DNA sequence: GAATGCAATGTAATACTATTACATTTTCTC
DNA sequence: GAGAAAATGTAATAGTATTACATTGCATTC
């Protein structure tokens, strides 16, 4: 029907461009992939870039919308495949309670590529604010150590963990009547 | 079109009957509700009974199927409303990673109604076996204490927490080439 | 530099999970 | 019994994720 686009080379050149600081984080992510023998394609880079652009967790279908250009209208599998890749390589996290995704905090804040290591790939801990929806990744290792200890006792082999704490961040808590965790018995 | 059924009194008499040991657990749950000024209706009792009948986490739509009788074909809101009630009263838990529900382990194992208390209402911890899908609720309080400590430092007000550990249970681990939690760096 | 094979992507359809909005019925309280 | 609140019924829709299969891009080998 239409004139074909110039063999679009979807995996060759990114469709999106981002602010310099995001591009820098994307370059860092790309380096990490290369180092692991994984391919950071244009598609995956676009998705990661979009996630990095958000201050809050973003849903798969939001990303799908943002991926649309004049030339391309990706379908769900496109974004889910990219998300799977990024998850597998520890570049993003999925917030289970929100069915949404955030960049790994290390991409934003660490200058050293090997920090966090294990503590971030298949295990992470988050503080989720109900009010402003901000999610903070916490770096603590005590919780994981405790879980490891418990699981060792039960001969349970840990493959991944998720810890999600929901409540009010400091900012929002100061604006609200305090609703703490209630105490009731079963 | 059809003859109306005898004013079915949906909230009066349970539509389902369960084995004696399940009925006993349901009675316990009912007592807890009463004690809290909450109403354990027939609908809610049916849903809880069905959940207790399962050895593994069960999805909302599975329950919906199981709720169907010759007389009634409940719609999604019916089961979701019952689930919300049961969650709010700490009688069941939602496993986020599975979008599925399990009974609170206390219903099965505790003779004392006030055990666990807080540790079970809005906070719980689970070991999820990838292989056999069994979910075990763990009773440890150390993790929650640690999280509270962390949050106190950040002035984050905790309202609820979830800890999900995914891997292989002892039984399944013994049948498999060990796939531990990998170590890679970001 | 064709042939081969695998990784990545495109595309359409469908499955699964959850909520909204509004009508009706039941239960509680007075 | 009247009125209010809680619970349920019902239809439609929203939101999230996967399956299955065709096609393309890319790397290796001969
Ligand atoms: Zn991380
Ligand atoms: Zn906040
Ligand atoms: Zn519990
Ligand atoms: Zn198992």
Task: Describe the protein.
2 copies of one chain form a homodimer. With 186 residues, the first copy, chain A, is of the alpha+beta class. Chain A is 40% helix and 17% strand. Chain A has 8 helices and 5 strands; from the N terminus they run H-H-H-H-E-E-H-H-E-E-H-E-H. The first copy, chain A, is globular and about 55 Å long. The N and C termini of chain A lie far apart (65 Å). Chains A and B meet through helix 6, strand 3, helix 7 and strand 5 of A and helix 6, strand 3, helix 7 and strand 5 of B. The complex binds zinc ion (4 copies). Chain B binds a DNA duplex (30 and 30 nucleotides) through helix 4.
> Any idea what the CATH superfamily of the largest domain in chain A is called?
Winged helix-like DNA-binding domain superfamily/Winged helix DNA-binding domain
CATH architectural type of the largest domain in chain A? Orthogonal Bundle
What overall form of chain A do the CA principal axes indicate?
Answer: globular
Helix share bin of chain A = 40-55%
Percent of sequence in beta strands of chain A: 15-25%
The helix tally of chain A amounts to 8
Low-pLDDT ranges of chain A: 1-11
| Overall mean confidence score, pLDDT of chain A | 85
Domain tally of chain A: 2
Radius of gyration of chain A in whole Å, from Cα? 19 Å
The quaternary organization reads as homodimer
Largest sheet strand order of chain A: 4-3-5
The name of the CATH topology of the largest domain in chain A is: Arc Repressor Mutant, subunit A
**What is the string of helix and strand elements of chain A?**
HHHHEEHHEEHEH
- CATH class bucket of the largest domain in chain A: Mainly Alpha
What is the makeup of the main sheet of chain A?
3 strands, mixed
N→C terminal distance of chain A = 65 Å
Protein name (chains A, B): Zinc uptake regulation protein
GO cellular component, one term (chains A, B): cytosol
Family (chains A, B): Belongs to the Fur family.
Cofactor (chains A, B): Zn(2+)
């Amino acid at each position: 029907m239409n004139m074909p686009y110039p063999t679009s080379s979807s995996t060759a050149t990114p469709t999106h461009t981002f602010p310099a600081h995001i591009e820098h984080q994307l370059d860092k992510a790309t380096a990490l992939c290369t180092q692991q023998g994984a391919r950071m394609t244009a598609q995956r880079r676009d998705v990661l870039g979009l996630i990095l652009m958000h201050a809050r967790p973003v849903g798969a279908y939001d990303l799908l919308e943002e991926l649309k250009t004049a030339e391309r209208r990706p379908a769900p599998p496109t974004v889910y495949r990219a998300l799977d890749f990024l998850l597998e390589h520890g570049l993003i996290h999925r917030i289970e309670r929100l069915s949404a995704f955030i960049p790994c905090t290390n991409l934003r804040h660490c200058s050293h590529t090997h920090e966090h290591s294990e503590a971030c790939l298949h295990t992470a801990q988050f503080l989720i604010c109900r009010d402003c929806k901000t999610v903070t990744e916490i770096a603590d290792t005590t919780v994981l150590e405790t879980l490891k200890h418990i699981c060792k006792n039960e001969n349970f082999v840990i493959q991944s963990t998720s810890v999600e704490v929901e409540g009010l961040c400091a900012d929002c808590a100061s604006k609200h009547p305090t609703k703490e965790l209630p105490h009731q018995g079963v």
